[in-house]
Amino acid sequence: MLRTEDGVRIEAVYEPSRASVTDTAVVLAHGFTGSADRPAVRRAAGALAQRGAAVVTFSFRGHGRSGGRSTVGDREVLDLSAAVRWARELGHARVATLGFSMGGSVVLRHAALERGTEGRADAVAAVSAPARWYYRGTAPMRRVHWVVTRPAGRLVGRYGLGTRIDSRAWDPVPLSPVEAVPLIAPTPLLIVHGDRDAYFPLDHPRMLAAAGDAELWLERGMGHAENAADEKLLARLGDWLTRA
Predict the structure, then answer these.
(1) What value does the mean pLDDT take over residues 207-229?
(2) The CATH number of 2-134+175-243 is which of 3.30.390.30, 3.40.50.2300, 3.40.50.1820, 1.10.3720.10?
(3) Can you tell which superkingdom this protein's organism belongs to (predicted)?
C-alpha cells in the first residue's frame, strides 16, 4: 500500500524485469473501472517485463483494493505520482509512465504537473486517451457519463463494476489532456489510438499530437484501451518506453 499526498491508500504491485537488469521502470495506469489485478492489466505488465523493464501496477483511488473514491481523472494524478516515487525509491533511475483511457489522461496531466519534481516521468505513453473533458459523442461515453453523474449510475459503478465514484462535481475543472500536452516537452511523448475505438474517435489523438511535440501511432483494427492492446503492440510500447 502506498500513501498519496492527500492521504489516500493505494494498492501497488512491483514486477521485476524478466529480460535483463535495467534501470527503467514502467508505471502502468489502468482505465476507468479497472484495477491492478484485472487480466488485461496483468497481461500488459507481463509483456512489458519481457521487454526489459520493471513494472509497477496500481489501482487508482476508488478501484480495486485502494481507498478513496474515483474522481475520474482529477486527483488520480496524486495516485500516479505516489507510484512513480515508489519506483524511484526501489532504485530505478529512469521511470516511464503508460496510461490507458482514463489512465492515459492521467499520465498526460501528471507529466505536465510533475515536471521537474521527484514524481516526474522520463517518458510518457498515452493509449486511447481523451483529448478533452465532458465528451459525449459516442454511446459508450454517454453510458460512462450516466454512471459517473447519476446516483443510480454510481450504484451500478459500485456494485456492478467495483468502482466507488465521488459524487461531487469537479471544482475547479482540472487541466485537460490537450492543455497538458504543450507543457510536457522535452519529455518524450507517445500518443497511441485505435481506429476502431468505440469511445473516442480519431480527432482525439490527432488533437493531442498536434498540441505539442508528440509521436503518434494510429493502430489499424484496434479498439479501446488495455483490453484491445495485443501482444505486438505491447511489445512495441515496451521497446519505446525503455529506449525513448
Answers:
(1) 97
(2) 3.40.50.1820
(3) Bacteria
Per DSSP bridges, beta strands 24-29 and 94-100 are parallel
**Residue 99, exposed/middle/buried by CB under 10 A (0-12, 13-18, 19+)?**
buried
Q: DSSP letters of 24-80?
A: EEEEEE--TT--TTSHHHHHHHHHHHHTT-EEEEE--TTBTT--S-B-TTSTHHHHH
In this prediction, residue 19 carries a pLDDT of: 63
The domain segmentation of the chain, as residue ranges, is 2-134+175-243
Residue 100: strand, helix, or coil:
strand
Contacts of 216 (CB under 8 A, 6+ apart): 190, 191, 192, 193, 205, 206, 209
pLDDT for 22: 64
43 contacts 13 by C-beta, under 8 angstroms: no
| 8 A C-beta contact, residue 24 and residue 53 | yes
Q: Quickly list DSSP for 74-86.
A: STHHHHHHHHHHH
